[in-house]
Each structure stands twice: as C-alpha cells, then as structure tokens.
Write a structure and sequence with these properties.
Elements lengths: L1 E10 L2 E11 L4 E5 L6 H6 L6 E9 L2 E2 L5 H8 L2 E4 L11 H6 L8 H5 L5 H13 L15 H14 L4 E5 L7 H18 L2 E5 L3 H7 L2 E6 L2 E7 L5 H7 L3
Parallel strand pairs: 3-8, 3-9, 6-7, 7-8
Antiparallel strand pairs: 1-2, 1-4, 4-5, 9-10
Helix pairs in contact: 5-6, 6-7
C-alpha cells in the first residue's frame, strides 16, 4: 500500500527526513515512535501527499507522490482517514452529525445542510458509533463530551469515509491513561474488523509495544528501527531515543 525508497522529505528547502526505506502492507497496525523533533509527524503526514518530496521513490495506494496532480491528490486523500490529537470535530454539532460528515463525499451538500439523511447513511453511522462505543451519546453536542469520547467520535468519523488507511497523529497524548487505553483498543478493533491499515504516531512507548504489530523508530530524521514490536529491546529503545 505504501512504498518509500531512498526517500528525502521536507518543507520548502529544509530536509526533515532522509534515506527512508519503508514498505507498508494492507492491514498492518504500525506505531511510529521517537524523540520530539525526530520527524515522526512529518513521516506520518507525508502519506497524505502534503510534504515535499526532494528525491527518492514514494508511492501510496499506487499514486506517485513525487509528481502527483491535484485531481489525483484529492482521490488519494479520499482513501485516507486522519485522526488528530485535537480531535478536529465540529463542537456545536451532535455526535451523529460529526460521524456522518465523514460521508460527505457521497452525500449532496443540499441534504447535508438540512441534515436529511437516508436510512442507509444512518445505519452506517450507527455501525461506526457502535464499534467505538459512543452510540448512547449520538445526539449530544461534541463539546459536551470528554476528551476520550471526542477522540472516539473522530475515529467513527474517519471510518465513515471507508478509508483504506487511517493515520493517527498522537491520538492519545492528551488523554488520561484509562481513556488512552480505550482509544488504542478501539483502533486495534477497527484494524482487525475492517482490515484498515492503521499507522499511529505515538508518544507513549508502552502503547506502541502493547497494541502495534510493527514499530518504526525515528531519530535525527531517519529510520533507526523497523521490526515487530516483540523485537524491540531496551538497548534498541535507547538507540531510538538517543540525543
């Protein structure tokens, strides 16, 4: 699904990541770890085509990101769900409305504005709310929810777009431990239930080791570890987080 070969990425003239060689298969659950400023978020968000490719090979869902045209960039992003640390919900709208907003590419704007949803759309929304365990709050405004509940709504909204890949940028760093584990469990459940590839940029090492099948360690703008989570030893952790 994702191929990176001798890849160099950055912003304007500044190189952030260099010599990246990675392949991601369908259905993987990957955690990206490393110290602050190592390039984790740049690596994650580059998958949406928003980071400059200086050189190397970069393909996502068969799109070449080195010279991708705008119409293909739109097609690519329609197949990628993104979950942010800050949730990015419309707080004044209900949980249901936020989840259905993930379907907007398939719902005419005229119907969406007046909230005229079809039965099949409501059925899909309920399925996604059920899997993240938020259905009982479906008619609440999102600003009435806790942080953990809001992040679960964000996952359901991402699912509503039926993505092939979900990117989660520090999805639990602002949550208490109980809520964080709930969110990680749901991401794992989504990964296993729908076969969606999940790639999460994680601040907490223990969550990466517990929930992710594969871990990518980034330090000083390059990948220093890429293996199954059970092969991440204390010595390798020290290498990943070395100054």
């Amino acid at each position: 699904m994702i191929k990176m070969k001798n890849l160099t990425l950055g912003y304007k003239k500044e190189i952030i990541l260099k010599d990246i060689d990675l392949k991601v298969k369908k259905g993987e659950f990957i955690g990206i770890i490393g110290p602050s400023g190592a390039g984790k978020s740049t690596l994650l968000m580059s998958i949406t085509g928003g980071i400059k490719v200086f050189n190397g090979k970069f393909e996502v869902l068969d799109f070449d990101l080195h010279n991708i045209k705008k119409k293909n960039l739109i097609k690519l992003r329609e197949q990628i769900g993104v979950i942010f640390q800050g949730y990015n919900l419309v707080d004044r709208l209900s949980v249901l409305d936020n989840v259905i907003s993930g379907m907007l590419k398939d719902i005419p704007l005229s119907r969406a504005i007046i909230k005229l949803y079809k039965d099949k759309e409501l059925k899909k929304a309920k399925e996604y709310m059920d899997i993240v365990d938020i259905t009982k709050h479906s008619m609440k405004r999102c600003d009435e929810l806790s942080g953990g509940q809001r992040q679960r709504v964000a996952i359901a909204r991402a699912l509503a777009a039926e993505p092939k890949i979900i990117l989660a940028d520090e999805p639990v760093s602002a949550l208490d431990p109980k809520s964080a584990r709930k969110v990680m469990e749901i991401l794992k459940k989504v990964n296993e239930t729908y076969g969606v590839t999940v790639i999460a940029n994680l601040h907490h090492l223990e969550y990466a080791k517990e929930y992710c099948d594969r871990i990518i360690g980034v330090n000083n703008g390059t990948v220093v570890f890429d293996d199954n989570s059970e092969n991440l030893t204390e010595k390798l952790v020290e290498k990943i987080y070395a100054n």
